Amino acid sequence: MTKLFLTSAGIVNKEINDAFISELSKPVQESNLLIVAYAQNEQEEFYVNASKKELEQLGFENIVVANMHYEVKVNNLGNFDVIYVCGGNTFAILDKIRKTKLDNFIKSQVNNGTIYVGVSAGSIIAGPDIEIAGWGSEGDKNEIGLEDLVGFNFVNIAVFPHFHDELKSEVNEFRKKVDYKVIELTNDQAVFVKDDKIVLIGSEEKDLYEPVA
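Given the sequence above, the corresponding structure tokens read:
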């Protein structure tokens, strides 16, 4: 059973928090959680630490941080109830995930029931490809020249994180060029995917999206 929480900014409000906690297979204090991050400077390190504190405040006690800026030994990681993939430059993060062999590890865990939580770039990577990451006036720069943009393909949708109304026309232009569904996410929203259902959390309307074949 695939379970994904695709967010712009993490577990930022009660609605997302309640939905997330309710999907855990064991009490939060007993759940093992892996944070995957690529913190290359002090600012990015700050956000990783902030995410860890946020998760500790939710009640998680068993947290492992895999900072891909340093050596990550995949074979020593074990099994997790939740994998939380942080944000940053989407192209650089996906490239580093592949080089550290975390991609196969994450796919195996999620396909066996581990909950996947994406934050911004981490949410984009969960889709069929990461082309949307570089789209528009606020998109990431592909400074590393990454050519293989294939994502984890856990779900056949792309999310557009950090959405605001001024970006509406840009998102609509992207929709015209792809054959999968594109969902805008503000910083207060999340997409919850559970097998055959895709639900938008954190808005006045609960829009139910059927998966794209």
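The two ends are 17 Å apart (CA to CA). Try to locate this feature in the token string yourself.
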